[in-house]
Amino acid sequence: MKTLYKDILQAMLEDEKLLAVLIDPDKMKLDHVELFVKKVNISLATHIFVGGSTVEANATDVLVTKIKQFTTLPVILFPGDVTQITNKADGLLFLSLLSGRNPEYLIDKQIASVSKLRKSTLEIIPTGYILIENGKQTAVQRVTATKPLPRNDIQKIIDTAKAGEYMGKQLIYLEAGSGAIQPISEDIISKVKQELSIPLIVGGGIKTKKQLQLAYDSGADLVVIGTAFEDDESFFNDLKRNAIATT
Ligand code: 1GP
């Protein structure tokens, strides 16, 4: 049963906040997966996302197989490329980079993925992916050869997100870029959220519990965190399942 999207939508309607831990196959050592995923299991995380900008072919398949041995959390692919699609995951963010003007990332790679997806059992979730300027060049920017939307052009950001919804995207993902110095601002999150009736994902540069809470308070339905866990796994201690509920 494909209920990933239904569950995200339901969480949004009930104002239950979601957290995805992003695992980059390029950075995660296979012999560390068990320990890492066990920490994820006892944290507030509700999802595991797997993906990266540059990943060796097959690495995602091997990694997802291993992750699935140690968790019952849904594993969703957040692919940087067609080679990162594996049927071992539960779902796939079918991304279209709406902030950029590179047809490769708007439609060509999506077409190239169809032969793989046609046979797969993955739940495919159409997602409008919007990169916002963050003061330094990000991997997404470099790999996709696109410009992010200027962070001070809030109307353009809102209209891009809304256009995504009109196009039929089921999720909008506001991305500051992996390891961003500044996460997406509260102002941008809240203004985009006000216009959308679909769930809003926010990621990039969130490193503290306070920043996580601010993103939620501003209207993020699902927050993605990767680098902060890669840099310091003790961050999981701040995000133990019962810790935030009492604050
Ligand atoms: C990157 O939004 C994700 O695509 C997560 O970013 O690695 O900075 O947490 P961080």
UniProtKB/TrEMBL annotation:
Its EC number is 2.5.1.41. Keywords: Lipid biosynthesis, Lipid metabolism, Magnesium, Metal-binding, Phospholipid biosynthesis, Phospholipid metabolism, Transferase. GO terms for cellular component: cytoplasm. The keyword Nucleus does not apply. One of its GO terms (biological process) is glycerophospholipid biosynthetic process. Sn-glycerol 1-phosphate binds at residues 173-179, 204-205, 226-227. It is an enzyme of class 2 (transferase). It catalyses: sn-glycerol 1-phosphate + (2E,6E,10E)-geranylgeranyl diphosphate = sn-3-O-(geranylgeranyl)glycerol 1-phosphate + diphosphate. Its cofactor is Mg(2+). Pfam families: PcrB. The keyword Lipid metabolism applies. InterPro entries: GGGP/HepGP_synthase_sf, GGGP_HepGP_synthase, GGGP_synth, IGPS_HisA/HisF. It comes from the Bacteria. SUPFAM superfamilies: FMN-linked oxidoreductases (SSF51395). GO terms for molecular function: imidazoleglycerol-phosphate synthase activity; magnesium ion binding; phosphoglycerol geranylgeranyltransferase activity. Mg(2+) binds at residues 24, 53. HAMAP family: GGGP_HepGP_synthase (MF_00112). Prenyltransferase that catalyzes the transfer of the geranylgeranyl moiety of geranylgeranyl diphosphate (GGPP) to the C3 hydroxyl of sn-glycerol-1-phosphate (G1P). Belongs to the GGGP/HepGP synthase family. Group II subfamily. This is Geranylgeranylglyceryl phosphate synthase. It comes from Mangrovimonas cancribranchiae.
